[in-house]
Design a protein that fits this description.
By secondary structure, this protein is an alpha+beta fold. Helix content is 21%, strand content 34%. The protein is globular, with a radius of gyration of 23 Å.
Length: 350
């Protein structure tokens, strides 16, 4: 399935972001992950639970049911299931066969997200979740905040490739975070043991009059240091640090601040995607209102990426025969990302 050379759309034996921690509470809610409809809730002790939405009795939606203690009662015939998926009550039937179960899924809370393992539960190793140090929100001098979750009408690889090629900043995001010099600056990348690292230096850039530059108090020319991490198959961490330019800056080397944006990319279906995003910053960390300002600002940037991905999806799915794809030097990281994602799927297939 484009752009991967495999008919299987995604890898199962991996951790994916399933929800914001604040979304999972004592109210049952439904979300589709990797094509599977699931229900989420918390036990009275606060443990998050995920299980198949379809009651195994007659396939009615458990999301229409109610919580009774830590059990879900199906609203169709009154079957009850505990947090381990075991049926604990059947009306008019005292003996409950061991086969009366519904599938539950391993969950882990890390940062402000609930992560889910959709594959073989015996392979669900929590140490495979990216280390929370990358989010920096617990690091002295940094402050993190939640963003949102959006449902894209586009396949997840389109968003992955959007984030792996930030040369689009000067064009798609020219009104908020981009300048032409980003595309003119070479990107370097390296595949490491658990992630791909990318970086580029945008030197002596004019950023003072950009909306983000004004927000950060930028003065004069800047050197923008752009660092990224890609933890396949689900997480990107992007974000720049801004310094007064070594050549032409008003105070060479002075830091104007840095921020990191977290992108959790989880397939809903082969052609729709959950997009979880948040941010941390190292400037004005005592300013609560700046969280809302930054969230609103990033909302505009995210919306542009969503529009781009959904436009491409519409052309892929309804545009008939497309012209042959071409690639440029700037696509190196994105093409490597494709190979990494495809290898995860092939590993699942054995």
């Amino acid at each position: 399935m484009y752009p991967l050379q495999t008919e299987r759309p995604y890898a199962l034996n991996q951790w994916y972001v399933a929800a914001w921690s604040h979304e999972v509470g004592r109210t049952i809610f439904e979300r589709k992950i990797l094509g599977q409809s699931l229900v989420f809730y918390r036990t009275q002790a606060g443990k998050p639970i995920a299980m198949d939405n379809a009651c195994p009795h007659r396939r009615y939606a458990l999301s229409n049911g109610r919580l009774e203690g830590d059990d879900i009662e199906c609203a169709y015939h009154g079957f009850k299931f505990n947090g381990n998926g075991k049926c604990v009550h059947v009306p008019q039937q005292d003996k409950i066969p061991a086969a009366f179960v519904t599938r539950t899924y391993p969950l882990v809370e890390c940062w402000q997200w609930v992560w889910i393992w959709m594959g073989d539960p015996d392979k669900a190793d929590p140490s495979l979740i990216p280390d929370s140090k990358w989010f920096k929100d617990k690091e002295p001098g940094w402050r993190g905040f939640a963003g949102a979750v959006d449902l894209l009408k586009a396949r997840y690889m389109l968003l992955h490739e959007n984030l792996l090629d930030l040369s689009h900043l000067g064009f798609l995001h020219a009104r908020n975070i981009g300048t032409p010099r980003v595309a003119q600056s070479a990107v370097e990348f390296e595949v490491r043991s658990d992630h791909m690292a990318l970086w580029r230096n945008v030197n002596s850039d004019e950023f003072e009059n950009q909306p983000l530059g004004k927000l950060m108090g930028v003065k004069g020319l800047v050197d923008r240091v752009m660092e990224q991490q890609f933890f396949a198959p689900n997480l990107h961490i992007t974000g720049p640090a801004f310094y007064s330019a070594r050549e032409g800056g008003v105070n060479p080397g002075q830091s104007f601040g840095a921020f990191r944006v977290f992108h959790g990319i989880t397939p809903e279906t082969p052609t729709t995607t959950h997009y979880f995003w948040g941010c941390s910053r190292n400037f004005e960390i005592e300013d609560n209102e700046l969280d809302n300002i930054m969230r609103k600002f990033l909302r505009g940037v995210v919306d542009e990426d969503i529009e781009a991905s959904e436009t491409i999806e519409r052309l892929i799915t309804t545009g008939g025969t497309l012209v042959p794809e071409i690639s440029a030097i700037s696509d190196g990281a994105g093409l490597r990302g494709r190979r990494i994602m495809q290898s995860l799927i092939e590993k699942d297939l054995g």
